[in-house]
Here is the input.
Amino acid sequence: MVGLPKIHRGGFSRQSAGDDMGIAVLLKQVPDTTAKISVSGDRVDETAVSKWSMSPYDEYALEAALQLKEAGAGDIVAITCGPTRATKMLTDAAAVGVDNLILIQDDGVTDSTHVQSLLAAAVKRSGSDVVLCGKQAADTNGGSTGPGVSHLIGAACVGMISEVSAEGDGFIALRASPTGNERVEVSRPCLFTFDKGATELRRPNVRGIMMAKKKQVETVTSDDLGVAIGTSSVSLQSHSPPPVKPPGQKFEGADSVPVVVAKLRDEANVI
Amino acid sequence: MDVTIIAETTADGLHPVTSQLVGAAIAIGGTPTVLCPGGLGTTAAASISGVSKVIGVKGDCFNSFDSGAWAAALNPLVSDGVIIAASAPSGREVAAQIAAMRGIPIIQDATGLEVGITVTRGIYSGKAIEVSTVTAPCAITLRANAFDAAGKGGSAEVSTVNQSADVAVAVREAIAKASERLDVAEADIIISGGRGMGGPANFSHLNEIADMIGAAVGASRAAVDTWDEIPHGMQVGQTGKTVTPSLYIAVGISGAIQHLAGMRTSKYIVAINKDPDAPIFGVADYGIVATWEAALPALKEELGKL
Here is the structure.
């Protein structure tokens, strides 16, 4: 898009194409799923993380957002709540076609209510009425953000979807159900949380990467958003590595199958 | 302490995980009231030992799933203490919406709960364990099979409330599962195949064994990404399902860190792989260094003798 106003820190901006149109995608930067997680003292050592990436389910949400944009559903604002290092993830999102980037500084955020309030305030301020995000982040594995934000912005929530397309004024989404899948219909305002999507996130082209370098990241604080972060009743006590399993027994060749089956029956009592 | 349990229900009534939610609530000194969405499973819920009250919540909104509508209908019946739901797709979503409505924190997918309230859960898909404390009011969802179920023999009072809410998500079409096979998230035994299976057609050997022992069939991400015939619903691992069965049999799976994250908490792990250095052997209780072509017929034969 050409001719979009430059966004400045703390400034109000409404960048959607139509009156109420606009897509927000909520992203989180997490340790890459191939990264080792090490615990030092009783906290996960974030400085030891070798690679930070966009949370995998958020990638599916972003790809779906790009496809909705191409179908004319509006411009995309990517919003994250996190530390400064998350700027890179936002720039990566710009390189594949996101129009506007917002980083909410996460000082003092400790529980689900805080992050939801901040994200919801940023979504409202952007004027977006369609929100996409992953079903859960690959670090905290919570899955509360999408449903919580949907309530706070007064949007319908459709969880665990793999596809979404615009139809008329609304959307059709494919979601998992206890008996298979369901195709559901929903109107704006709405929020979708993504399970594994049908299409992997596209790769940026050179032009996209060049354009993204010039794109400004709007950094906002809870004050800018008018959100008061109170104290929390949740208090982190410790992180620890998963319990180490004692070394198992290893056998050579298919001839050992009867031995293992006997052990499963007699030692482990699981069959 | 008042504990409101959102029962997990199925088309047939009460999901058995509900007894585990009750067991966990009692273990932290809670007095559990069980809310049954759609009024399903109230009789079964009342028979769980230790339940103090059962409320069947009936309304049109429960005819299909809209987490916002379910939460709006259930919320007026929730007490100010602790809300407990199952860490299943619907339970997580509804509990998160109720927590947001009440402005209270939610902790999802707990694997341990102690008086205090001290909550234990896996983070980074199980690559680390997090322990935190939280006080009421709060919401907590519990992972299936991580808590001892309360017994039977209860006789709680059952009441029915008519309470609905506006539905914003309309189901246009239901698409049935291709197979009636057990879901990996529900199964007590899982046999999974990886790219070492050579091709999707060879999963038929896993299906046969699964049918013999009542297991679900799973797959590694590599298998799901390589073969269209293997659906994502079968994927075990960080971008698939995290499972905790009693027995997990990994066949032709090398054991990438993302896969291990999704299955390492299984009670017993058997690995069958031709590569003796495959990382999967690092988490296996019983490792068999063999090709699947050699090992699976032998496994079939031995299981047939049981």
